[in-house]
Amino acid sequence: MNYDILITGLIIVAQILAVVVPVLISVAFLVYAERKVLALIQLRRGPNIVGPFGILQSFADALKLITKENIIPSGSNKIVFILAPIITMVLSLAGWAVIPFSPGWVVSDINVGIMYLFAVSSLGVYGIIMAGWASNSQYPFLGALRSAAQMVSYEVSIGFVIITVLLCVGSLNLSKIVLAQQTVWFAIPLLPMFIIFFISALAETNRLPFDLPEDESTLVAGFFTEYSSASFVLFFLGEYASMILMSSMTVILFLGGWLPPFDVYPLNVVPGVIWFTVKVIFILFLFIWVRGTFPRYRYDQLMRLGWKVFLPFSLFWVVATSGFLVYFDMLPN
Amino acid sequence: MVLYSLTFYLFSSIAVLSALMVISAKNPVHSVLFLILSFVNASGLFVLLGAEFLAMILVVVYVGAVAVLFLFVVMMLDINFVKLREGFLQYLPFGALLGIVLVIELGILFLTDRSSNIYNNQTPLQPIVSEVENTKMIGQILYTEYFYLFQICGIILLVAMIGSITLTLRDKGGVKRQNIDSQNTVDASKAIEKKKVKIGEGI
What we know:
The complex is a heterodimer.
Chain A: H1 2-41, H2 57-66, H3 78-94, H4 113-123, H5 125-134, H6 138-169, H7 174-179, H8 191-204, H9 216-219, H10 229-254, H11 265-268, H12 272-293, H13 299-327
Chain B: H1 2-24, H2 28-48, H3 52-76, H4 81-86, H5 88-112, H6 117-120, H7 134-142, H8 147-168, H9 180-184, H10 188-191
């Protein structure tokens, strides 16, 4: 009896580690890749000193940041100030519990997988609000205000996009969503929704061109202005981990998850996890590409885009998709 | 089963404790944060009952949207807590009365409902395992049996939304707004005018 619990516990811990450790390592390489790609866009060389081609740069940076002094401002609300980066980090890792990397490769194959991801990503705003408030300083508070309004606005259209996909699948389970795309990836019939989801994902993860919460030209560093050392590292890791999480969500919803592009001989022997990784890397490249290309949105333009363009359009698309499915009797049972 | 009971007691005790902290915390922002913790634990209890859809909706709607706005109002308002606590004794009898009524009602419920198998059964509550997902079950009952009530709920929400918009929308005259479409359709022929200026003369 006791051994059973112990073994179950150990298996759970091992599964969690098997997901979290690769995620953290890929965060390190994502930071490196971002700096390299941006450098290529701007005709620079990027990091090239630490390790071959500078590949160990992120580890060196992390080591440097962690060994610095952790400054907690005297006027801050200490407990909330320390909790905020921890919450950001934990939430960006919690979503990975339901991501299917390959058939059966999932820590928890729950019925409401997509709802769980949606819930976790909507909780992400708390880390930022708490950081902004607890810092007891103007710039972080302004950053927190901006991010809360932004994340709540773009969640609405993300919700509608998810509903459209669910209409075509008939299940909230992520593995079933992937399997429903065996004939055609949803990115093709639902192309406008795919684009809206990608742009909303940029806004949801506070990435350029929507990085107004940490707008360095007006708000110093936004909500993490007062953070230093390890707590800053947690924010940084959290931001990139949630970036990878949103990319995997895009891949699962629209690009067929672990499925190969065509179910023909040389492509379908490649393991699913490799297809999944390749697609996630492609979406992440888009994230970085957008960052290197577009200027930052003004705040009112951001709100206009979210509420006046995306919301009506995605709402219309939900109605159109459900009408189409009902009319041609294609609703999944 | 031991794990199940342990998680149940973990979630429920944290939910109750954080609910207590909501009303006893000195700082209003801390109160709201404890409220959020309480919500999250309640959704954990829903998951234990096998109602995973309700649990996720609770997190998305209450924690992800309502509590965010709530937290904002509390952060922006400069609440003087000494002043709020002044009327504590004045409101105490009323609050106590409400609490006592609630406790009595709950007591009656627990004492009379002996026939229900929840209390007679000695085994702890278990998640209901069934073939049909409960999301699907909710959908099937909501859009057939309770269809009209569901539509009425939607209309009530719409009325509330329109009401709050008309209350807050003030169209002051003289506000310059950016018309993005007209701005995007501007081309050189509309924006620039070429003139030949004779030497020694103005336009």
